């Protein structure tokens, strides 16, 4: 049976916290009786740091793309509207009875 693993945070002797992946395996004799436990702790602190950095960059890029799309789509639409209507849509015109359409 392969070992099962999980991530956890441990404290080093110097007091710093590290992320580790622990693998725990049972050791058995020829009859199948459990005779011990084997554990392997792998330091995954750098992996977790890089994972967090990637997530932050991804979120930043999503925001940037959203802003770029908003700015890129908003300009052509606004530039096609008559100037008086643009002012009304953005609450800058003096005529509060602005209507769109014919007649």
Structure report:
The chain has 103 residues and is an alpha+beta fold. Among the domains are: 43 residues, Complement Module, domain 1 (Ribbon); 29 residues. The chain is built from two helices and three strands. The protein has a three-stranded antiparallel β-sheet, with helices on one face. β1 and β2 form a beta hairpin. The chain is elongated and about 85 Å long. It starts with a strand and ends in a 14-residue tail after the last helix. The model has no long low-confidence stretch (mean pLDDT 79).
Summarize, please:
The protein is α+β, with helices and mostly antiparallel strands and 103 residues long.
Keywords summarizing the entry:
single chain; 103 residues; alpha+beta; 3-stranded antiparallel beta sheet; 3 strands
- Order of H and E elements: EEEHH
Q: Which consecutive residue ranges, at least 5 long each, have pLDDT under 50?
A: none
The best one-word shape is elongated
CATH class of the domain at 1-43: Mainly Beta
Arithmetic mean of pLDDT: 79
Helix percentage range: 40-55%
Number of helices: 2
- CATH structural architecture of the domain at 1-43: Ribbon
User: What's the count of strands?
Assistant: 3
Gap between N and C termini:
81 Å
Strand order in the sheet with the most strands: 1-2-3
For the largest beta-sheet, the strand count, sense and barrel status come to:
3 strands, antiparallel
Radius of gyration over C-alpha positions, nearest whole angstrom: 31 Å
Strand residue content: 25-35%
Task: Kindly identify the CATH topology of the domain at 1-43.
Answer: Complement Module, domain 1
What is the oligomeric state here?
single chain
Class by helix and strand content? Answer: alpha+beta
